[in-house]
């Protein structure tokens, strides 16, 4: 399943909107054995859109397009696709019912411009939108699958998860891919790489390791490709066990585990509570801790002491400490905590 992604919109090209759709789509395709070979962003221009599709078809069997399906004049994707596939639109009753239902929930009447969103190319397979007014479209053309979806992220994701991803196995076969992400904290990427060099060199050819560093965290993602899912999972489990023997003290979780949730679970297990004195972080650590449901069982509260005066009055930090060593110093942190 070789795929390309095309995002449409002037707002992307001028940096007004960041393209998060492509990253999400690529991740989802990867989970089912798809490989994204290229991501292209083009303007709301008929020639640019058709050229991008032509070029993508030469390289990939699956082309996923997002953007340009809104009700306004600058949204030209549907019109362009009609021209590209030499077809006209017809009114789709089911699509209109979805639009009507959405407008009714908002206490509004469907306008003529929104009614036109229910007009879809005659030769497409409609992809109905349960959370927005723009239906998607799937075309089968010259042995290729071209899918057009809304650019609004939550609408695109809903359509991908509930419709597109379920259809793709009907058109493509793909190998089994098993991923395992190991989450580490307290060690830099280069140091971690040195420590596990021999382990990494011993990985089988069908298992790849990727380093995914972020502030304060390094994720290690193992990706295994084959035909037997159970066998791949057993191999990954054995490799992770070997990794734990080398860098176990730095591993805090796996896959989608959140550090703030793991901290909360440890506090609950130990019947301990947490309060925070924050400065440069501006309350962000408190935000992370309280983003976990049930955190009131162990989290007491915080003081965000950004200014010198708040540090001295509310937290009792000595003025001489701030004057001599500065706000960003070990001694100031100690006094804030005390």
Essential attributes:
alpha/beta, single chain, six-stranded mixed sheet, 41% helix, 338 residues, four-stranded antiparallel sheet
In short:
The chain has 338 residues and is an alpha/beta fold. The chain has helices at 10-13, 21-31, 46-59, 77-84, 93-105, 112-115, 153-167, 189-195, 197-201, 229-247, 259-270, 284-290, 308-313, 319-325, 330-337; strands spanning 2-8, 35-42, 62-66, 89-91, 119-121, 125-127, 136-141, 144-149, 176-185, 207-214, 217-226, 251-254, 274-278, 299-304.
Descriptive report:
The chain has 338 residues and is α/β, with parallel strands linked by helices. Helices cover 41% and strands 25% of the residues. It has 15 helices and 14 strands. The strands form 4 sheets. It has a 6-stranded mixed beta sheet with strand order 2-1-3-8-7-6, sandwiched between helices. Strand 6 and strand 7 form a beta hairpin. Helix 2 packs parallel to helix 7. The longest helix has 19 residues. The model has no long low-confidence stretch (mean pLDDT 92).
Percent range for helical residues? 40-55%
- Low-confidence segments, ≥5 residues, pLDDT <50? none
- Shape label: globular
Number of helices: 15
Q: Return Rg in Å.
A: 26 Å
What is the string of helix and strand elements? EHHEHEHEHHEEEEHEHHEEHEHEHEHHH
Structural class: alpha/beta
Strand portion, in percent? Answer: 15-25%
Task: For the largest sheet, list the strands in their spatial order.
Answer: 2-1-3-8-7-6
Mean pLDDT: 92
Number of strands: 14
- Spatial gap, N to C terminus: 58 Å
Largest sheet: 6 strands, mixed
């Amino acid at each position: 399943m070789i795929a390309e992604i095309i995002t449409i919109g002037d707002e992307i090209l001028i940096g007004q909107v960041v393209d998060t759709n492509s990253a999400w789509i690529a991740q989802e395709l990867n989970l089912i054995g798809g490989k994204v070979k290229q991501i292209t962003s083009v303007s709301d221009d008929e020639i640019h859109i058709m050229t991008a599709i032509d070029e993508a078809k030469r390289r990939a069997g699956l082309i996923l397009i997002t953007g340009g399906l809104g009700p306004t004049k600058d949204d030209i994707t549907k019109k362009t696709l009609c021209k590209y596939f030499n077809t006209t639109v017809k009114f789709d009753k089911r699509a209109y019912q979805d639009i009507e239902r959405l407008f009714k929930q908002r206490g509004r009447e469907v306008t003529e411009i929104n009614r036109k969103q229910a007009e879809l190319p005659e030769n497409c397979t409609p992809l109905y939108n349960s959370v927005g007014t723009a239906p998607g479209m799937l075309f089968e053309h010259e042995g290729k699958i071209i899918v057009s979806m809304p650019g609004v992220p939550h609408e695109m994701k809903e359509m991908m998860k509930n419709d597109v991803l379920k259809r793709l196995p009907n058109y493509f076969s793909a190998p089994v891919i098993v991923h395992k992400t190991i989450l580490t904290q307290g060690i830099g990427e280069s140091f971690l790489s040195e420590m596990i060099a021999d382990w990494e060199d011993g990985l089988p050819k069908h298992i790849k390791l990727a380093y995914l560093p972020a502030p304060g965290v390094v994720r290690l993602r193992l990706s295994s490709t084959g035909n037997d899912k159970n066998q791949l999972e057993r191999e990954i489990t054995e490799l992770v066990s070997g990794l734990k023997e080398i860098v176990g003290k730095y591993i805090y979780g796996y896959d989608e585990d959140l550090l703030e949730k793991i901290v909360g679970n440890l506090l609950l297990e130990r019947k301990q509570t947490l309060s925070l004195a924050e400065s440069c972080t501006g309350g962000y650590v408190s935000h992370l801790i309280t983003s976990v449901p049930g955190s009131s069982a162990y989290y007491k509260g915080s003081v965000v002491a950004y200014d010198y005066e708040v540090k001295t009055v509310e937290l009792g930090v000595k003025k001489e400490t701030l004057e001599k060593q500065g706000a960003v110093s070990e001694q100031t942190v100690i006094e804030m905590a005390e």
